[in-house]
Write a structure and sequence with these properties.
The protein is mainly beta and 443 residues long. It folds into 3 domains: 227 residues, 3-Layer(aba) Sandwich (Lysozyme-like); 90 residues, Jelly Rolls; 84 residues, Sandwich (Immunoglobulin-like). 11% of the residues lie in helices and 35% in strands. The strands form 6 sheets. Strands 3, 4, 5, 6, 7, 8, 9 and 10 form an 8-stranded antiparallel β-sheet that branches. Strands 20, 21, 22, 23, 24, 25 and 26 form a 7-stranded antiparallel β-sheet that branches. The longest helix has 17 residues.
């Protein structure tokens, strides 16, 4: 993949209060290249351009699918498709799968998928965009990477007229795209194309997106007043991130897949600070819950004020790991941090420095074995040593468990023969005692 490079612009973030670096988009970002076609079996689809991403979507009650890519004539392995971070009833859509400059792709969809289509997208190798999107007309007084900075092609935006409502809820998503993206702005342009054109939303579905470094990107177009996601009155533009519950609901998506990995520290910090800023601005209790009322049709849903996408719909989004962090993220947005778990109790020097006291040593015999028993005044292990005569070496049993009453059987003895034995016990701190030498005679 060929990436355009630009200069670094240092910004003081009004969202995080920290100094952050944002990549200034060079003049003339590449135009987005895309081809969309029906899915036909596992047909190998050749591409006229290097494939950065493939997205798949279809109607039906089934879910899932798989894709594989060809590079230099060699096919890779099949990879399961992740679910997109935006759902529509009766239609399943994948997140964008990374193609890494592939020259062809194949798609599998489950039985029962109807009207399946796939789109191949390239946001890095097209010709330079027209002057309307260059940095010479892109002014930005915020730390947020606004649409013209990440290279949104506004000719793809077909929704409208926009509607604005007071914010009631803040909903967290993940995009389901690859982790570790080296050009987040290119990923932004791909998500924009996919959701605006192929998925039919007319624009990107989220209000804000956050990359792994913590940069915050403007999503859904809300006007030209320099206040992303809001109109001049401070109301929130309606986007398309939670089917049936979009009006007055702010959607924030972390770029990547957070099903089994945690968000990067920079991304999590920016998410917490953005949620704190929005909840303060809109007088939303970050740790509270309330009934959401759709201002358009009156639909109601009781849900946490800072929620995950799966609180609204049957979806994996925002990923299991990110969803599990939401309680702590709510605390951070509220300006409080959950106390850390108490430290383990300190290790102390044991006060017991005396070895166990051995008493009641005895042995009962058969013709070829002996059972040796004894007691100790504290919990301790035990072992027995025996020998046939004073000139023979001692034979020892292994240590037994911690106990006060000890019993060991010695087998393989010779009948009518005298043996010597002694016992040893060791307490938990490691102090040990060994008894005097005793004797027994087998029968």
């Amino acid at each position: 993949m060929r990436f355009l490079t630009g200069v670094m612009l240092v910004l003081v973030s009004t969202v995080t209060g920290a100094v952050v670096e944002a990549r200034e988009r060079p003049a003339g970002p590449p135009e987005t290249l895309a081809t969309q076609r029906p899915v036909s079996g596992e047909e190998a689809v050749e591409s006229a351009f290097p494939i950065d991403f493939v997205g798949v979507y279809y109607d039906g009650e089934v879910t899932g699918g798989a894709v594989r890519f060809r590079h230099d004539g060699r096919w890779g392995t099949w990879v399961d498709l992740e679910e997109d971070g935006v759902e529509v009833d009766g239609r399943w859509a994948s997140a964008l799968a990374p193609g890494a400059d592939a020259d062809a792709y194949q798609v599998r969809v489950p039985r029962g998928a109807r009207s399946a289509r796939a789109v191949a997208i390239n946001t890095t190798d097209g010709p330079e965009a027209t002057a309307a999107t260059t940095s010479t007309v892109c002014t930005d007084a915020t730390s947020i990477v606004i649409r013209c900075e990440w290279g949104a092609d506004e000719s793809l935006m077909t929704w409208g007229p926009p509607q604005y409502f007071p914010a009631q809820k803040l909903t967290v998503h993940h995009t389901g795209t690859v982790n570790g993206a080296t050009d987040p702005a290119a990923t932004m342009r791909a998500i924009y194309r996919y959701q605006a054109v192929d998925r039919g939303f007319g624009d990107i579905g989220y209000h804000y997106l956050i990359d792994e470094a913590g940069l915050i990107y403007e999503g859904r177009h809300s006007g030209d007043d320099g206040d992303p996601a809001h109109d001049a009155a401070g109301n929130v533009v309606t986007a398309a991130h939670v089917g049936g519950f979009n009006s007055g609901n702010v959607g924030i998506a972390l770029i990547g897949t957070l099903t089994s990995v945690d968000p990067q520290p920079g991304a999590r910090s920016s998410l917490e600070q953005l949620l704190k800023q929005l909840s303060t601005r809109h007088k939303i209790d970050p740790r509270g819950s309330s009934v959401y009322v759709n201002p358009v049709n009156g639909t109601m849903r009781a849900v946490a004020n800072i929620s995950g996408h799966r609180d609204w719909a049957a979806t994996e989004c925002p990923g299991g790991n990110l969803y599990a962090l939401l309680p702590a993220i709510r605390d951070a947005a509220a300006g409080t941090i959950s106390p850390p778990p108490p430290p383990p109790p300190p290790t102390t020097t044991p006060t017991d420095t005396t070895p166990p006291v051995i008493t009641a040593v005895a042995a009962s015999t058969t013709s070829n074995s002996a059972t040796v028993s004894w007691t100790t005044d504290e919990m301790s292990t035990g072992s027995v040593e025996d020998r046939r005569t004073k000139t023979n070496p001692w034979t020892s049993t292994s240590d037994g468990p911690l106990t006060r009453g000890h019993s060991f059987m010695i087998g393989g003895l010779t009948s009518r023969t005298s043996y010597q034995y002694r016992v040893t016990s060791k307490d938990e701190p490691g102090y040990s005692s060994t008894s005097a030498i005793f004797s027994f005679k087998t029968r």
